[in-house]
Amino acid sequence: MIEQVIRTRRAVLPDGIRPASVAIADGRIVAVGEVDETHGCTNLVDLQPDEVLLPGLIDVHVHVNEPGRTEWEGYLSATKAAAAGGITTLIDMPLNSQPSTTSVAALNLKRGTARDQISVNVGYWGGAVPGNSVELQPLWDAGVFGFKCFLGDSGLEEYPYLSPDQLRETMAAIAGFGGLLIVHAEDAGVLTRAPTADGRHYDAFMASHPAEAELVAVRTVVAAMRETGCRVHILHLAAAEALPIVRGAKDEGLPLTVETCPHYLTFDAEEIPDGATEYKCCPPLRGHANRMVLWQGLADGTIDLIASDHSPCTVDLKRLDTGDFGLAWGGIASVQLGPAAVWTQARELGHSLSDLARWMGSAPADLVGLPDRGRIAAGAAADLTVFAPEQTFVVDKNALFHKNPVTPYDGRTLAGAVRATWLAGRPLDLNSAPRGAELLRR
Predict the structure, then answer these.
(1) Cβ atoms 130, 188 nearer than 8 A
(2) What is the pLDDT of residues 357-412, one digit of tens each?
(3) For labelling, which of 118, 226, 244, 245 has a CA lying 20 to 30 Å from the CA of 397?
């Protein structure tokens, strides 16, 4: 029996935006009809005229950091932040937790830690590091959605990067069982030759991670894809100069996908004050012209999706007291703000809510093999976001659910307020016990 029906003047559906009624039973969407349809149900929820019904959004790049660095972030805080931002599913990175998720034993520890703490659906990435190739297929069989590697220094001694030879060996192994490799694409050799980043000047930090590091790394990945046939996803692309390489690989038929992040689509390097280490991330934020080309890459499909790369730390590790970019931890906390940050820029550039739903809903769902998520359609999970696209708000870092109040979005006006987040057919109450579900690869 249909348990309830949501009616709205604007639903973001796979075929466009239109009035619709969404019928829900047993945590799933069972029918999508005309707006005045009740589907024989008397439990009706009518959205306000300024509200839009989006699919629950999906963030495939979140560093929860638990266990081991729970003071940086944890499942309780990260998933509440995700829910408050309209995210109903997140995939947790294999670092910066301790231990890293590079073995089944470490995965089981992470799963046990997450249990009873998650407010949204949570899945897991495994890790690919030198020496753990024997662990890759067991991790895949245990349900991870793929494997993350670095091609340059990760910033963590316990998570070393792969050399080009190790990369090809890892890709061959993953291709053998049909898995997915996700890559932090900055080349170690280029980074080693680059100038150091010590000091308060943002330009010096940007020069320490030049665009060439991304270009060389992406070329290395594409060449190894030709040799191995491995499916690869490039994480947090920042350098627009790499887009022609990506486009060429796609035109060649290689199974390559790419993401960028809200911060690369929002901030211009020219505007970052010296000493403002809350803006530090790797790869770094680049200039205005670069940012606009990234938006063009989204528009033409060269870039497939957007993910937050939520990478928080404690306030002291950001070195806000000295503003030293060389010493500060690199990472931007934004899982609660990603959809609003993207929408703020997207609407100014003429993009639609359908684009937002694709970039942050169906495309990330398809990447990780969850075709019943990230879309409003019969048979899909009834994970939904009630979004007010015209409502603006000023970010207050102290009001976010993020565990540590450090974000470059603080004080920035964003458009797009999340009025409610529905999980499995019911609106979430973040003051109640968490009721998110664990997701394993099917």
Answers:
(1) no
(2) 999 999 999 999 999 999 999 999 999 999 999 999 999 999 999 999 999 999 99
(3) 118
On the 0-12 / 13-18 / 19+ scale of CB atoms within 10 A, 201 is: middle
Asked if 266 and 345 touch (Cβ cutoff 8 Å), the reply is yes
Contacts of 396 (CB under 8 A, 6+ apart): 410, 411
Closest CA to 359 of 61, 48, 58, 31: 58
At 27, is the pLDDT very low, low, confident or very high (cuts 50, 70, 90)?
A: very high
DSSP 400: S
Q: Are 175 and 230 in contact (CB under 8 A)?
A: yes
Distance CA 298, CA 272 (A): 24
**E-only strand ranges, 209-271:** 231-234, 256-260
Side-chain half-sphere of 381: how many Cα atoms within 13 Å?
Answer: 25
Contact partners, residue 395, CB within 8 Å, separation at least 6:
337, 407, 409, 410, 411, 412, 413, 414
DSSP 8-state assignment for residue 269: G
Q: What does the pLDDT read at residue 442?
A: 83
- What count of residues does the chain have? 442
Please give the pLDDT value at position 284: 98
Cβ-Cβ contacts under 8 Å for 40 (sequence gap 6 or more): 2
CA distance 220 to 163: 10
Helix, coil or strand: residue 161? coil
Q: What is the pLDDT of residue 197?
A: 87
Q: Provide the pairing of β-strand 87-92 with 57-62.
A: parallel
pLDDT in tens, 122-140: 999 999 999 999 999 999 9
Cβ contact 90:406 at 8 Å: no
**Contact partners, residue 55, CB within 8 Å, separation at least 6:** 12, 357, 361, 362, 373, 374, 375, 376, 380, 383, 384, 385
Q: Residue 70 — very low, low, confident or very high, per pLDDT cuts 50/70/90?
A: very high
